[in-house]
Amino acid sequence: MLTEQSAYTNRWRQISPVAKGFVSICGMVAAFAAGSPRTALLVALILSLATVLGANIPPVRYLRVAAPALFFLLASGLSLLASLDFSYNSTFGLSLHLAESELPRIFQVCCRSLACLTALLFLALTTPLTDIISLMRRCKLPETLLDLMTLSYRTLFVLSEAVHETVTAQSARLGYASLTLSLRSLGGLVANLAVQVWQRSQALHLAALARGNDGALRFLEPDYPDSPRAISCAVISGVLLVVLAVYLP
Amino acid sequence: MTDFILSLKDVSYRYPDGTSALNDCSLTIRRGMRTAVLGANGAGKTTMFLHLNGILRSSTGHVRWEETPLDYSRDGMRKLRSRVGLVFQNPDSQLFSASVREDVSFGPMNLGLPKKIVRERVEKALLAVGMAESADKPVHNLSYGQKKRVCIAGVLAMRPEVLVLDEPMAGLDAAMQEELTVVLEHLHAAGMTIIIATHDLDFAYGWADEAIVLQRGRLLAQGNVAEVLLKPDVQTELGSSPIVAEITSSLALTGMAVRVNGYLPRSRSELLKAISEFHRQENEQ
Questions:
Q1: Among partner residues B74, B97, B98, which is closest to A214 by beta-carbon distance?
Q2: What CA–CA distance (Å, rounded) separates A237 from A137?
Q3: pLDDT tens digit string along A148-179?
């Protein structure tokens, strides 16, 4: 929901998604092109500063949105670093082994991932998902994938509301008063949701038929003014970012 | 041009689970009229609506558009569904996209119209329901009433001749009901045939021209709303009668024959106006 909030209220909301998407992709290219961890970190820094200062996203919110991804990055970095050793010469036949020689490469991978993350956040925090989907539609991505994205995104909110209502109703009747009761209520919630998902999919199907649908979901793309200024700004900054990543040692 | 735009003749429908929803139901919808469909829960209102739009097909009997039975081929359905717009009761189960504009464009895009025309229709439909200013908001941040209006806009953008609404007033507060009534009034004035399923007798009495009362899948009564709602068997079936009609007849018993422009008052505001008019005339004499 934090991402949602930013996507709809940031300073760059009305700027063409094409421009923002281009910068984001350039950011990812730059992340892969970066020859050293230092360069990748610089790319990450530039992109995050652009998001926070340019699109006016509060830094604390930015960190909160990034936190889960950063946690996973840290966890996978550590798991790459440590490896289990099944050699016979250790005491229990099993030992934890630190791949010290791999440290520079692991650091490089982590820095690149971090730069990719900031590039993705640049787009996610400045552009509502509906705009991103229609941008993908413009890029002629497979219809089925986009239909699934559209429906899942909408259903996410419908179901989260249903979960909230069911949990409230269960709590009102002491459904979560003890551990046993909680487990039971949770089971009830899951069963109830399964039925609701089925019923809602039926209802959506009927609604689609009623509105003359016979297959693929078709929507009108939002009409953003692809202002030459925004596009040229995006092209210049995106290309500069890639050039920077390629030529910096 | 015939007077009847849609009609059901001896239509029966049984759901796959065995529930019989319509039983030899015959009724007619008159062109350009405001029709209220009343009946207890399970009387078959929603099932009847799904027949009007061709989503359900009866096992016996037939549904007609003017004089011709419905054509259930792909093209026939596309034509029918562009003519008969159906708005369901729960807005959350019919909004597809999280973007208001995109959702409203869904119907006209299905009709295969050029994008320029779709864009025009979407803006006009949003304007007609008073949602033009919220068009850039995500659907999940809208209020219940606003979602409902987006649903109506989604159907209006298909430019139907008949607008069918399943309990549009349910869950709306008084102010939102009033706003929706104004929207419906504009559509009616523009010549649209409007059919509404409702449990609100007072609303039906004040708003509709015609009333259809269903009882366990059959037609119990049909005709002028003022006549139908005052029939004793209808009152027994619906469990009550419009409060304005009750007050008017109680007043008549006390010798106060209140009228607005010579007619019986049909809504609260008309009743109040009729009473003050009655007192003014009394004082003049």
A1: B74
A2: 24
A3: 898 888 888 888 888 888 888 888 888 888 88
pLDDT band at residue A125 using 50, 70 and 90 as cut-offs: very high
Q: Is the pLDDT of residue A97 over 80?
A: no
**Residue located via tokens 């009866």:** B58
CA of B228 vs chain A CAs: smallest distance (Å): 30
Q: Which of B50, B118, B138 sits opposite A128 (nearest CB)?
A: B138
- Calculate ∠ Cα B264-B268-B274, nearest 5°: 45
Least confident stretch, A54-58, B42-46, B153-157, B258-262: B258-262
Chain A contact present for B24, CB below 8 A: no
ipTM of this complex: 0.76
Residue A56 CA to residue A60 CA, distance in Å, equals: 12
Q: Does B78 touch chain A (CB under 8 A)?
A: yes
Residue type, B16: P
Contact B109 A219 (CB under 8 A): yes
C-alpha A153/C-alpha A166 separation (Å) is 20
Long-range pairs for A23-26: beta carbons < 8 A, 24 or more residues apart: A23/A50, A23/A122, A23/A123, A23/A234, A23/A237, A23/A238, A23/A241, A24/A119, A24/A120, A24/A122, A24/A123, A25/A119, A25/A238, A26/A119, A26/A237, A26/A238, A26/A239, A26/A241, A26/A242
The stretch B192-198 carries a mean pLDDT of 95
Tokens of A89: 């010469």
- If you classify domain B4-240 with CATH, what class do you get? alpha beta
User: Does A18 touch chain B if contact means CB atoms closer than 8 Å?
Assistant: no
Query: What one-character DSSP code corresponds to residue B135?
Result: T
Q: By the CB < 8 Å criterion, does A165 face chain B?
A: no
How close B269 comes to chain A (CA, Å)? 36
Give the residue from A47, A33, A49, A22 showing the smallest Cα distance to A243. A33
* CB burial string B220-229: b at 16+ within 10 A, e below: bbbeebbebb
Task: Tell me if residue B42 falls in helix, strand or coil.
Answer: coil
Question: Judged by CB atoms within 8 Å, which residues 74-133 of A form the interface with B?
Answer: 128-131
Residues on chain A touching B74 (C-beta within 8 angstroms): 214
The reported pLDDT for the residue numbered A124 is 93
Q: Strand, coil or helix: what is A134?
A: helix
- Give dist(CA A122, CA A109) in Å, integer: 20
pTM of the predicted model as reported, rounded to 2 decimal places: 0.81
Question: Which residues does chain A have within 8 Å of residue B107's beta carbon, measured at their own beta carbons?
Answer: 211-212
Chain-centre distance for alpha carbon A85: 35
DSSP designation for B134: G
* Structural domain spans, chain A: 2-84+97-127+225-247, 142-210
User: For residue B150, what are its two tokens?
Assistant: 């987006």
Locus of tokens 């079936």: B237
CA distance A176 to A55: 42
Q: How confident is the model at residue B258 (pLDDT cuts 50, 70, 90)?
A: confident
Domain regions of chain B by residue span = 4-240, 242-285
Joined tokens for residue A7: 């996507």
